[in-house]
Write a structure and sequence with these properties.
Shape: elongated
Helix content: over 70%
Order of helices and strands: HHH
Low-confidence stretches: none
Strand content: under 5%
Radius of gyration: 23 Å
Keywords: Membrane, Transmembrane, Transmembrane helix
Number of domains: 1
Number of strands: 0
Number of helices: 3
Distance between the termini: 27 Å
Mean pLDDT: 74
C-alpha cells in the first residue's frame, strides 16, 4: 500500500507539472504564434481549457487518494499494534 501511495504522489506531481508547463508555454508564446493559438475555433479553445482543468483535477485526485491511503496505512498499523497485546493488556 505504501508503494501505491508513493506512485499516486508521483503521478500527482507529474500531472501538475504538465499542467503548469502547458500554462507557462502559453505565456512565452510570441506574436504570430499566439495569434494563431488564440484564433482557433471555440470548440478547440474549450477543449484546451478543459484539458488543463482535467490535468489539475487529476493531480488533486492523486493527492487526495494518497492521503486516504496514508490514513488507512496508519489505521492498519495501529490495529496491528493492538493485536500484539495479551489478554491482560501486556505485550505477549
Amino acid at each position: 500500500m505504501k508503494t501505491i501511495r508513493i506512485i499516486l504522489i508521483i503521478l500527482g506531481y507529474i500531472f501538475l507539472f504538465f499542467q503548469l508547463a502547458g500554462f507557462f508555454q502559453l505565456l512565452v508564446v510570441e506574436g504570430n504564434e499566439r495569434k494563431e493559438l488564440f484564433d482557433k475555433q471555440l470548440p478547440d479553445q474549450i477543449a484546451f481549457f478543459f484539458g488543463y482543468c482535467f490535468l489539475f483535477y487529476l493531480s488533486i485526485a492523486c493527492f487526495v487518494l494518497a492521503n486516504k491511503l496514508k490514513k488507512k496505512i496508519k489505521k492498519k498499523a495501529d490495529f496491528d499494534m493492538v493485536d500484539g497485546l495479551g489478554v491482560d493488556g501486556n505485550i505477549s
